[in-house]
Specification:
CATH architecture of the largest domain: 3-Layer(aba) Sandwich
Number of strands: 8
Mean pLDDT: 85
CATH topology of the largest domain: Rossmann fold
Largest sheet: 4 strands, parallel
Number of domains: 2
Strand order of the largest sheet: 2-1-3-4
Order of helices and strands: HEHEHEHEHHEHEHEHEH
Helix content: 40-55%
Strand content: 5-15%
Radius of gyration: 21 Å
CATH superfamily of the largest domain: Nitrogenase molybdenum iron protein domain
Distance between the termini: 48 Å
Length: 329
């Protein structure tokens, strides 16, 4: 570990100690600041959106995200700025299951020092965690890709926030319940649209294995050129096997991702074309990160619908039922 990273982590731990003493998260650093000064810090962009959704309308709460749009959480390292944000946190909202791979040591230390650390995956029963065949038993962290699981994460965060802030427990619960209904409506529309793809073409090939929960929820096979983490290498044998399957099934499109380099997907397309197959890049999907705020994929709901539109359109289905207006409560 470089000395710069060591200094950053030292800053994080100093913030954790302050949190344990009751000063963490106060705008002026005082231990007796009121509840309106609470700071909720979220790691990835899906977690930040979940925190904003569950905490909506609660006065005085400030939600801060560590990672900007488009950043790969598997590879993100705490920066000096990120360490200062963590040092202010009353509650840290993380995904868990090693999504924040390079923060794996920081989050437990924060929790042991007194800050409340909520991992979204902890609200999901372990028997609903997915394990990829090539992941050596590692659970798939991309739980937000299944609306039913992400609704459970919202309920878990609402319960956590209610323990921290009992005076607004009803608001947190109501927000989570409303989000759960919205998740259900999104799931219905995406499932119906996926069903319009010709059965032989229901193969979703992406840059890395981030869509397993999506595939299980919506009835589409999923293959990732890389494994669960973008740190994994692409094996030549795996790439050849995937190329054989794509060509044999006549799949028309494969997909790149906003937070992952597209080299392996480009190699797959080139290899298929060399065999005479008509394979295209079907578009760019949001996998480990949401889009820029204010864009169609800038929040969880928009990201799910935008991804589904891209997938269904490129694989020959009917995406006309995926307008966001139809999913609003």
């Amino acid at each position: 570990m470089s000395s710069a990273i060591e200094r950053i982590l030292a800053t994080v731990l100093l913030g954790a100690i302050a949190c344990a003493s009751g000063a963490c998260g106060r705008a002026d650093g005082s231990a007796d600041a009121g509840p309106g000064d609470r700071v909720v810090v979220a790691t990835s962009t899906p977690c930040a959106d979940l925190a904003r959704t569950v905490c909506a309308g609660v006065p005085g709460l400030r939600i801060e995200g560590l990672m900007p749009a488009g950043v790969d959480p598997h590879l993100w390292r705490p920066t000096a700025g990120g360490a200062r944000i963590l040092a202010r946190a009353d509650v840290v909202v993380a995904n868990g299951l090693r999504l924040e791979g390079r923060m794996a040591d920081v989050l437990p230390k924060l929790a042991r020092s007194g800050c409340t650390v909520f991992e979204a995956s902890s609200a999901i029963p372990m028997d609903r965690w997915r394990t990829a065949e090539d992941a050596h038993g590692q659970a798939d962290p991309h739980v937000w890709m299944d609306p039913a699981l992400w609704a459970l994460a919202a309920e878990g965060l609402a319960s956590c926030m209610a323990r921290e802030d009992p005076g607004h427990a009803d608001r947190y619960a109501a927000n989570a319940a409303a989000f759960g209904l919205r998740c259900g409506r999104v799931a219905e529309r995406v499932r119906a649209a996926i069903a319009t793809i010709p059965p032989g073409r229901r193969l979703l090939v992406t840059a890395h294995d981030a869509f397993g929960y999506f595939g299980a929820a919506f009835g589409i096979e999923v293959r990732g050129v890389q494994g669960l983490s973008t740190e994994s290498e692409t094996g030549l044998a795996n790439l050849r096997a995937l190329l054989d399957e794509v060509v044999a099934r006549g799949v028309p499109a494969v997909f790149v991702e906003t937070s992952v380099p597209d080299r392996a997907v480009a190699a797959l397309v080139e290899g298929a074309r060399a065999r005479g197959a008509r394979l295209e890049t079907g578009g760019t999907l949001h996998s480990d990160a949401l889009g820029v705020p204010g864009t169609p994929a800038g929040d969880w709901e928009g990201m799910m619908l935008e991804n589904a539109r891209t997938i269904v359109g490129a694989l020959g289905g009917d995406a006309s039922g995926l307008d966001r207006e139809g999913t609003a409560p």
